[in-house]
Structures are given as C-alpha cells and as structure tokens.
Amino acid sequence: MTVRMSAGGAGGGLASYEEGKLERPNWTGQTPLSRLVGALISFKPLYSLLKLGARQVLISTAEKTNVPWRAMTKEILESDVYKEMETIQNADIVYPDYYLNPFHAYDEGNLSWLAAAEVEAATMSMVRRAIPDASSVDEANEIVRGNWLNAIEEHHQQFSGNLKIRDILDIGCSVGVSTRFLADKFPSAKLTGLDLSPYFLAVAKYKEKRNPQSSTTFQWIHANGECTGLDSQSFDIVSIAYVFHECPATATINLVKEAFRLLRPGGTFVATDNSPKSKILQELSPVLFTLMKSTEPFLDEYYLLDLEKAVNDAGFINVQTRLTDPRHRTLTATVPY
C-alpha cells in the first residue's frame, strides 16, 4: 500500500512511498526477535565486534557511493575547528544520563572530535541509503531534504499562512546540516541551531565561517533541547531532525513539550526520523538490523512510542505524518492561536 496521511488534510504534491504491513519492524519492542537481538548485543565480546562491524559497514558503504568519508574526516580533524570550542561550550551544562551512552560506535557518544568530524559524511551516507537509485548525494538530498522542507512549507501555508517565518530553531542541529537546509529554504529567517554536543557545534560554526551564507544569520547554542532556557513563544518553526531515535521516550516527550513552549501561536513544529511503517526498514536483513541496534541504544523505545499522541498531548493541533522518503517520516503540527 502507499503512505496514508494522518487526520488533518491532504499532502499536496509530495510523492507517495510504500508502507510495510506492520505497525513497526518486528525486530523492535518486546517481540521474540527483538529480545534475541538484545541478548546478543548485551554479550560484551560480541557487542565489541558488532560495534566495529557497524562502523566498517558505515564507512565502506559511504565510500562505495562516492561519499569521501575518510577525506572529509581528515579535513576537519586537521583544521582549526578546535578554536571554536571555547566560544561555543557552555561550561555549566549538565548532560542527561542517556546522552553519556555510546552512540554510533563511539565510546564517548556524541562528545568527541571524531564523532563531530565524521557526522556530515554519515549524514550524506544516510541520504544515499534512503535513495539508492540517486546518481549523487545532491540528487538524493533533493528528495530526502526537499520533501521534508516542502512538508514544512505546505503545513505552515495551510494552517499558519498569516504568520511570517522570522525565527527558526533547529533542536539537535548536530554540525548544522539540517540548519543550513532550513536557511536555504527560508532565506529571510534567522536560524538558531541548538545541540548538546559542543564538538558538533564547533564544527557547525567552523563550517559557517568557511562557507558563509550571507543572507542568513546563524546562532549556535550549546544547551539541552529538553530545557533550552530560551524565551517562550520566540520561534515560528521548531525543527527536530533525526534526533528522536537517539533518545529515550521520556526525553522525546520533553523535547516535544519544549518545542510547544518555544513556538508562537500558529507556529509549526516538524520532526523527521525513521518511520516505523517503512517497508524497507521492516524488511531489513538480520545482519543489518542487528548492527543498527548495536549502535542505537534507544531504538526500541523510539519505535514503541506513539509520537503522534505525544505531540497531541503536548497541545499541538493539525498533527500530520507522512512518509517523505522510503525510510523516513515527517510529522508536522501547529500551535493553536
């Protein structure tokens, strides 16, 4: 079957992608298969091998699709990026316990220079995996990022057409890839990128200096997206891209509540991430989903959470979800006037 819109309206001109037959992959949650994978991952010697294997798969698949992973990483690590840390880092921040877990085959999770140096190549590789028939990263981005941005624009025009887009917040902005795409789509807006990793933010600021977008003003903030400390009702769009699958359910719910607080009446909330209903994700091979779960400690919580309900419960209206590429869903919602 093709993707279905949630209650609240039609999806405009966006393409349709095929859903699987299940509500979520059977390798998640409390299924026997999920428990078996969990038991395998919990065995320390095997976990170490899986982590190494996952990393090797990521790099080799990236470079097979012309993503120069090693060269991009080397360029960052041998640059002056380290000078940005002192202007970015919030020394008073208290990291939530979940954020101190290993992520993506890094023992330090997102709190390392290697993770920060590799994340843009990993993001490019993710986009190529989503659109394997694309001839280039740019072509894949036209679909993955383009459909996500069009979903935001269509939703805002339909439900908040009179609210000018002046201020956009990108929570979990990483090294600023999604932030820069938002800036390109909405060039008159002021962009704020917020992340828990000062390493990621240092790379974001370094990249901004190297390739400035003259028409856009960026601000990079080192803070916890669950409690940002920013003023209430100070943004017209709050975006959270590819973050929720790295969070426990309680953190996801808190992020949604904080987004509601930060948005002006009529503002648009958007979240894009893995889709539980993706046919491709539901049909992943045992090797691939075992490797994936070995580097993503909160995948089960992500797939079990009813995200639409969490967004409704936070006070949002006009909640819509659609597949915007074969692997990812985009949820949009509105703060009522």
What does this structure look like?
With 337 residues, this protein is an alpha/beta fold. The chain is 44% helix and 15% strand. The chain has 13 helices and seven strands. The chain has helices at residues 32-42, 44-64, 69-77, 85-88, 113-130, 137-159, 177-185, 198-210, 249-262, 279-282, 286-295, 299-304, 307-313, and strands at residues 167-171, 190-195, 218-222, 235-241, 263-274, 317-323, 328-334. The protein has a seven-stranded mixed beta sheet, with helices on both faces. Helix 7 (177-185) links the parallel strand 1 (167-171) and strand 2 (190-195). Helix 3 (69-77) runs antiparallel to helix 5 (113-130). The protein is globular and about 55 Å long. The model is unreliable at 1-12 (pLDDT under 50).
What are the main properties of this structure?
7-stranded mixed β-sheet; single chain; 337 residues; globular; disordered N terminus
List segments where confidence is low: pLDDT < 50 over at least 5 consecutive residues.
1-12
Could you state the order of secondary-structure elements as H and E? HHHHHHEHEHEEHEHHHHEE
In DSSP terms (H or I, runs of 4 or more residues), the helix count works out at: 13
> How far apart lie the N and C ends?
36 Å
Q: How many β strands by DSSP? A: 7
Mean pLDDT rating: 91
Outline: globular
Largest sheet: 7 strands, mixed
> Roughly what percent helix?
40-55%
The spatial strand order of the largest sheet comes to: 3-2-1-4-5-7-6
Which structural class fits the helix and strand makeup?
alpha/beta
Rg over CA atoms, rounded to whole Å, is 19 Å
Beta-strand percent range? 5-15%
